[in-house]
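Case study B.
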Amino acid sequence: MAKVIGLTGDHAIAYAAKQCDVDVVAAYPITPQTIIVERFSDYVANGEVKTEYVCVESEHSAMSACVGASTTGARVFTATSSQGLALMHEILYIASSLRCPIVMAVVNRALSAPINIHCDHSDMMGSRDCGWIQLYSENAQEAYDLTIQAFKIAEDPEILLPVTVNLDGFIISHCMEGVNVISDEEVRKFLPPRKAVYKLDPANPITIGALCFTDYYFEIKFQQEDVMKKVPAKVKEVGEEFGKITGRSYGLIETFGLEDAEVAVMCLGSTAGTARVVADKLRKSGKPVGVIKVRLYRPFPTQEIVEAVKGLKALTVLDRVATSGAPSGPLCSDVKTALYAETEKPLITNVIYGLGGRDISPENLEDIFNDALRTADVGRVDRPIKYVGVRE
Amino acid sequence: MCSGCAAPIIVRQALKSIRGPTVVVNATGCLEVATTIYPYTSWRVPWIHVAFENAAAVASGIEAAFKALTKRGCLKEKIDIIAFGGDGGTFDIGIQALSGALERGHDFVYICYDNEAYMNTGIQRSGSTPHGAATTTSPAGTVIPGKPEWKKDIVGIAAAHGIEFVATASPAYWSDYIAKVRRAIEVDGPAFIHVIQPCILGWRFNSNEAIKIARLAVQTRFFPIYHVEKGQYKLDIKIPKPLPVEEYLKPQGRFRHLFTPEFKGEIEKIQAWVDANWARICQLAGEKI
Ligand SMILES: Cc1ncc(C[n+]2csc(CCOP(=O)(O)OP(=O)(O)O)c2C)c(N)n1
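Model:
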């Protein structure tokens, strides 16, 4: 039966992983992910799970152990952040290319230097092309819900790809919310034990991770591209099935007020909540604004976004990441690429904000909406990239 | 593999002593690149390669998963795990993952096949390359005679983790080696075996001489054969009448420059290192030198 309990985002993730009855967790602590591994250690210490918890000596080994464990057919979970994700970088590609359905919570945090423990998306964006499915959550509830869905998506025999569940460091990871949790039995019914076909099995020996020269490598990479094409439908299917149990259905993106909006902002993660509140207020004063939250970031939901922005005059894409020297932030670049071939498309501006945990206030967002309205009014982009919240 | 390479011999000898279902983990290196060129494979046991620095971490994950699956009743039999890594993947880049796995006590056997350089990338020096050996990053020049540093004591490092069984071996002394692999498998927890692997390309000797060189390494006391069980050192192959180290160095092109007049003193230094190392191990093993 569903019940509401007070959980931080991190605790909600640990709770979900426990309910998903994972076989192996291999993780290394890093703020603001630490609570996840600590809570999970409690479950292990108290015999609440059957999980083997490998307290590895680095994130590189965490992901390596996860790959090893996953190739035996086990259900595997880990979590990291920032420098830890960067240290895993090499093995992230191996996990996806060896088709290991590992689920990893990434508690988004800025990258060094200067060292900073607070939220931005530089960590995940630095690994955005690693072949993982990437989901972003807006709050602890979504972090919980998406973790359970992530295993089902990852382990689907049609998919077999690793999934990250991203949550904003501190903003979600450390804030306590009332989280609707479902019962262990409901989770078990939704997510039966993993059944792996290809695995390290002495009765049926296979070679995993062979050397591939020019004669085969490209085809194998192409297969990875091919399976990515199946992912959006699977994410939607799993999100809807989850909705049948919980009343909380999930799609690839989530929109607010778009039916009659002339301008919109688009973002990932917790900022969507603030944006919605501000948009609601502006709409009440007659301003035609809307919000697009991107939940599935990889594979990029091109079709949904093309549909969503139809009829908009201006769109402002928010990127919480430092991508030094790039023409725009990654989300904005992706949106522009997705819309390139469309004959009618909104004027697009990019806002870089919130680096290293810098707050994005309702006032900031109001300014951003008003800027977008001005862009729509004048009918051209004067400033393609704006830094909001920084002392220039 | 190159014709005459000792690595396949080392693997084949090791796999003669397995006791049941076994999974092999391989670090990136000669052994990996030469035995699994897709879509072919030389392995008839489940085999996995993930990367260069993490064979021990991958083995840790596999071992943990087997434990979890056994607890769940999904796995009925005990599956042994053997990890193979070269000296680069063991002495250098992989030492952190190896140390972590040994410290955590995962039940697996780690076999380091030691060809004393990064052979599959073109013979660059490693922490295992012996003093005086010429490699492409420690070349013998007019001023510097090959690698200035001495070989790292990997056995001491592994043993310092307090694991139950650590050993050295040479494919020339195959029955000693096979027995050690079997012992290592039977140990409950991690075990580490360091095997010398003469490399025809990097060491520059004739392709029919790998085993001869592996034997000379032992007979000159350059590579002592011993093991450490529960902290207790034991010398397994006594060499009462050692050959001078020159006999080992001479057939190898990588040491050729040491025989020129200007570097002659280096051989004496190497002999002194060999003698001191032998004395150290004898003392640890409670043997007379
Ligand atoms: C790659 C990476 N992983 C994790 C962290 C998080 N982290 C920062 S300090 C620290 C622990 C430091 O412990 P120790 O070296 O014993 O120093 P102490 O804090 O005890 O003085 C960790 C895990 C990090 N900064 N970078």
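Chain B is about 35% helix and 15% strand. The remaining cases will be described in the next quarterly update.
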